[in-house]
Design a protein that fits this description.
Layout: H1 6-13, H2 19-31, H3 40-65, H4 67-73, H5 78-81, H6 88-104, H7 108-126, H8 136-159, H9 167-188, H10 192-198, H11 203-207, H12 209-233, H13 237-248, H14 251-259, H15 261-290
Length: 291
């Protein structure tokens, strides 16, 4: 059987997608209040687990089970283009999932359990019989929780020796998971035609493109507004104002997106999302400095 080129394997694993869960893990580590330098090895292991392993495996799983949809939307991808021959896409998805679980043993019980949940969500999202992505609400929620909330909580827990982070950190993790639901919806605008033809119920298909665009923006902004109010209440006014400024800066990018969602979804994702995730780190530092 022909084997894929290493460059094709790397393309399947999509390194560009690894940043969000790695960033969320780092936020959780920062919010834990622990000394990052003395825990440098644990932080490095967690970053590798959240990005190059768990996230990468989820990309391979998704591309394998989305190969028919991708043949319509993005035929240049490794599997529909034929550059990933036979069932190699599936083999890599299984192998990377197993590697993730093996690596997670080094992070203790919490790290392994969190990894198992993340891997399980990635398969539930893409693979039958659950295939959560068939429902844009459920599928995006699974991705958002795994990429942001679970990674954040894991970053805090492993630095705390397996203890659960404090309530404020948990609340921030859940709020930014909610905001990430909107980010996930942005990714769905590029595949509306194929999703509609293949019966994938993404939010642009379920709600219509204009309504889905409004929903995505609202779901991104509302949790950030709650974060601002909480940081102010927790006695961190400068952090609250910084998050408010970062959220406000997203508005000029959202206005043209609402007028042309399909054409400008990638632009909002590329320019607006970094502002949102910058607020995540500001929020994490507020806990560290607030005690």
């Amino acid at each position: 059987m022909a084997r894929p080129a290493l460059a094709t394997v790397a393309e399947l694993l999509k390194p560009i997608t690894w940043f969000p869960p790695m960033w969320a893990f780092a936020c959780g580590a920062v919010a834990s209040g622990q000394d990052l330098y003395s825990h440098g090895g644990v932080v490095l292991m967690g970053l590798i687990l959240s990005g190059p392993l768990v996230c990468a495996s989820s990309q391979a799983v998704n591309d394998w089970f989305d190969r028919e949809v991708d043949a319509i939307n993005e035929p240049h991808r490794p599997i529909p283009s034929g550059r990933m021959p036979g069932r190699w896409g599936l083999y890599i998805a299984v192998l990377w999932s197993l590697l993730s679980l093996i690596w997670a043993w080094g992070l203790g019980t919490w790290g392994f359990v969190a990894c198992a949940i993340g891997v399980g969500l990635s398969w539930a999202y893409s693979a039958p019989p659950l295939r959560l992505k068939q429902n844009g609400w459920l599928g995006n929620a699974a991705c958002a929780l795994s990429y942001e909330g679970l990674a954040w909580i894991t970053g805090g827990a492993v630095l705390l020796g397996g203890a659960l982070p404090d309530d404020r950190s948990l609340v921030l993790a859940l709020l930014y998971s909610a905001a990430a639901h909107g980010i996930m919806t942005l990714n769905d605008f590029k595949s509306v035609e194929g999703d509609r033809r293949m019966g994938v119920g993404s939010l642009p298909v379920r709600l219509g493109v204009p309504a889905a665009a409004r929903t995505a923006c609202a779901v991104m902004l509302l949790p950030q507004a709650v974060v601002v109010l909480l940081l102010w209440r927790w006695g961190q006014p400068w952090h609250a104002l910084t998050v408010l400024a970062l959220a406000t800066a997203q508005l000029p990018l959202m206005r043209p997106f609402l007028a042309q969602p399909i054409a400008l979804a990638r632009r909002l994702s590329g320019l607006g999302v970094p502002l949102l995730v910058a607020g995540m780190m500001v929020s994490a530092w507020s806990l560290r400095q607030g005690g």
